[in-house]
Specification:
CATH topology of the largest domain: Rossmann fold
Radius of gyration: 21 Å
Mean pLDDT: 83
Number of helices: 13
CATH architecture of the largest domain: 3-Layer(aba) Sandwich
Strand order of the largest sheet: 10-9-8-11-13-15-16-14-12
Shape: elongated
Number of domains: 2
Order of helices and strands: EHHEHEHEHEHEHEHEHEEHEEHEHEHEE
CATH class of the largest domain: Alpha Beta
CATH superfamily of the largest domain: Probable inorganic polyphosphate/atp-NAD kinase, domain 1
Structural class: alpha/beta
Helix content: 25-40%
Low-confidence stretches: 129-156, 211-216
Number of strands: 16
Distance between the termini: 21 Å
Strand content: 15-25%
Length: about 400
Amino acid sequence: MIGLVVNPVAGVGGPAGLAGSDGADVQRRAQARGARSRVQERTAATLGVLAQRHPGLVVVTAAGAMGADAVRAAGLTPSVVHAAAALTVTTGADASRAVAAVAAAGATLILVAGGDGTLRDAAAGLGAAAFTTQEESAVPAADGLDRGLPASSLLSCEHRPAVLGIPCGVKMYSPVFAVSPRAAGALAADWVAEGGLPTADREVLDVDEAAMRRARVDPQLFGMLRVPYRVGRTQARKAATPASEAAAVAAAARGVVAAMQSGVRYLLGPGGTTAEIARQLGLEKSPLGVDVVLDGAIVRREASESELLAEVGAGPAQAVVTVIGGQGFLLGRGNQQLSAAVLRALGDDPLIAVAPEQKLLDLAGRPLLVDTGDPDLDARLAGHIRVITGTASTSLYAVAAPETLPI
């Protein structure tokens, strides 16, 4: 049985340049900046694939915008097992209770539409983040993450339902998401057809958004979820750039700085490599925002989608983006301010891609990914892109839209 829980405001902070969507105040600020969540349309893409393969399927879900509306719109049948106190203003606690109710109703795979914060709420709802602490020793941080959990928390998820994230948030560090909404639908359809799929215990990672806005990007582990896994359909965990690659990052950044032209606005997306570009220019970049640089000065910091459109309209511009290590995303993960509208306004050559060569090698031939939410634009951006990898070196690398990959 398939379950569905939707966070109705997931990702609303992305286009607004707020580096996340956690908290009612952030959501109000995002809406005041004209941002809107794309969660319903991305959930519809997932359910469309599921409905095509299994018409008439009953989906266990929450009422209204937390799931039932999307299920009905897809032509499927909702079995509503939870209703939030206020369906128009839901909270993380509502998501946790909804996931718990869907699990109690017998769902074996729960689709959760949101970002890292929503999946963290899902883990809490399943008890995956409510741990007994018989062992108090900390989990070794061999991967550089401050896990923040006792060793006893890393227990098998085999007795809980499987969970799969529909990517609708801003950050999405966690390896619990499908690579695209359609890929989530295909995995769910396979789950129904085959009576289950191979699963793996995967980490639920999240960052403190308030600390992140103060330049502290420190992902922590908040639980484990059992996730259906198929190569090419399930998102890898974001990999940090090791300190040993600092020289390679600096060289790639120098390559971009050397190519910058007078009078051109450069929209510096988030990432360690773009931060190094700013450092070499003598500038301090916002940690996860998109900053606009013109003639060696930041003219707009942490710009929203509408502010970027205004900057692009003022003269020649290009967006500078880097590769998310381990995942391969260029667009659609953490840089939603660089929206389809902004990218179209940038013209025929909208992107400067930069990454150390090792990040490309670590993808083992998998393409770079662009997920703007506009299938036609994603198809236009697909093909190959020249990635600046050093002071005087580039690599021509394949680009694909997750929605066009075989499912």
